[in-house]
Design a protein that fits this description.
- The complex is a heterodimer of chains A (163) and B (281).
- With 163 residues, chain A is mainly alpha-helical.
- Chain A is 67% helix and 0% strand.
- Chain A contains 9 helices and no strands.
- About 9% of the residues of chain A have low confidence.
- In chain B, strands 8-13-9-10-11-12 form a 6-stranded antiparallel β-sheet. A 5-stranded antiparallel β-sheet of chain B has the order 6-5-4-1-7.
- Classes of the chains: A mainly alpha (163), B alpha+beta (281).
- The interface between A and B is large, with 36 and 45 residues.
């Protein structure tokens, strides 16, 4: 119940973020969240966010302002149990979002948020990233995940017994 | 009556034995490497102390010694890194840090306000050190992280590398990002965070420490280990990249709560003499 309320709040936040980011553009898409809490709704929001990051009419600041809500959605997305086909589709949608937000994501925040998902479904993520048409972005994404992986594995080096 | 006498005698004998045992264990020793000081055996890391630091062992539990260091601080150190002999290398790198762990630069708010008062007197020297840290951070980003404009999860390592390069800190890791404040205090930084302070309102030249995420909707490595960045100004934050925005712009204040705004104080306790001399502290 608590999670459902949180998802409703997030979705409302998404609507506000869309509305703010789309302010300069007339007839901008605004999420309609009649039913919240399912992958179907989050999926729709993630696709809309991808479009917003690709929107050339939005400024860098407007796109950066979409990051917190993107990260929250990517986080809640991980709580939803999916079948194999839906999971593969989810990975495709997430990779498209990561690719479109890469230029504006100054802290690799989206990649960090889905890092544990990436670690769990590494093969599928790598394969999907390699299918991106923009090879520069694909390389950058793969290298970002490699760095995060190295950090996760070597995290003890900054907190180890001897330094 | 006779029983009571016997009991007193036994208690006295036990106490004396215990005192003798403790005395036999207590001794002046040295750390053989830069080493973590923990709250208990394998407990939370309180701080790190450099190689060659003088310590007094108090008791032992498994592979850990309970030790006294600095001016009376107590913690636990792994026995592997303690020796009766002072390491030969300590004369160069660690000597200048001996006895540097002054508890007056500790965790208490009163000691912090004292430091802030001192800073007002010696602000120029501290600003000089901060400027050296910023230059070193830029150099580290260039040499080790390809001058990138995006962070990729190595914030704690990069900030520590900058402190090493600036000759402010001779040792290695000082904990995950969220745990760096004790180590920074040891160097001479003071937490000047105030209620309502944001990364934007934090003073320039400070090191911003973010804690682990509060509540749901936050995932990933940073949500567990926190984040740390050097604020050059409101358009430049330095860690394993030189970025335009502070971390809260990406995650929000709930997922990356600001817990420390660390400002260099009057005396850089672990700085090399050359830095102290050139900055006049």
């Amino acid at each position: 119940m608590k999670k459902l309320i949180l998802l409703i709040l997030i979705s409302m936040q998404v609507n506000v973020a869309f509305a703010q980011a789309s302010a300069p553009k007339k007839n901008a898409p605004v999420a309609k969240s009649a039913q919240i809490g399912s992958w179907v709704n989050i999926r729709a929001d993630l696709i809309r966010l991808t479009q917003q990051f690709q929107n050339k009419n939005l400024s860098e600041d407007q796109k950066v302002s979409l990051l917190p809500v993107t990260n929250e959605l990517l986080s809640y997305m991980q709580d939803i149990q999916l079948g194999t086909n839906e999971k593969m589709e989810q990975i495709q949608i997430v990779v498209q979002l990561l690719a479109s937000s890469l230029e504006y994501d100054f802290a690799s925040s989206n990649a960090d948020t889905v890092y544990f998902e990436y670690a769990k479904y590494k093969g599928a993520y790598i394969q999907t990233i390699k299918q991106l048409t923009n090879t520069r972005v694909a390389k950058e994404l793969l290298s970002t995940f490699r760095d995060l992986e190295a950090t996760a594995n070597n995290v003890q080096s900054e907190a180890g017994e001897v330094f | 009556m006779r029983n009571l006498h016997r009991l007193i005698l036994q208690i006295t004998s036990f106490t004396v034995t215990l005192m003798l045992a403790t005395t036999a264990l207590a001794g002046i020793e040295y750390t053989t490497a830069g080493v973590n000081v923990r709250q208990g055996p394998w407990g939370r890391i309180l701080t790190g102390i450099p190689e060659g630091t003088k310590i007094m062992t108090l008791s032992k539990k498994n592979e850990f010694y309970r030790v006294k260091f600095g001016n009376g601080r107590v913690g636990w150190i792994h026995s592997k890194y303690i020796s009766k002999e002072k390491p030969k290398t300590a004369g160069t790198e660690a000597d200048y840090c001996e006895g540097c762990l002054d508890p007056s630069i500790g965790d208490s708010i009163s000691s912090a306000s004292e430091e802030i008062k001192k800073m007002a007197l010696y602000g120029r020297g501290a600003a000089c050190i901060s400027s050296k840290i910023i230059s070193a951070a830029k150099s580290v980003i260039k040499s080790r992280y390809g001058n990138r404009t995006r962070g990729r999860g190595d914030c704690a390592l990069a900030v520590r590398q900058a402190l090493n390069k600036a000759n402010v800190w001779p040792g290695g890791g000082i904990g995950h990002a969220k745990d760096m404040m004790p180590g920074l205090r040891q160097m001479g930084f003071v937490n000047v965070i105030k209620s309502g302070m944001t990364p934007e309102s934090a003073p320039e030249g400070t090191i911003l420490v973010y804690g682990k995420a509060r509540g749901s909707g936050c995932r990933g490595l940073g949500s567990t280990y926190g984040h740390v960045e050097i604020k050059e100004n409101n358009n430049s934050y330095l860690y394993d990249g030189k970025v335009k925005f502070n971390i809260q712009k990406a995650f929000g204040a709930r997922c990356r709560p600001l817990i420390g705004v660390m400002k260099m104080s009057t005396s850089c306790k672990t700085c090399k003499q050359s830095v102290k001399k050139s900055c006049g502290v």
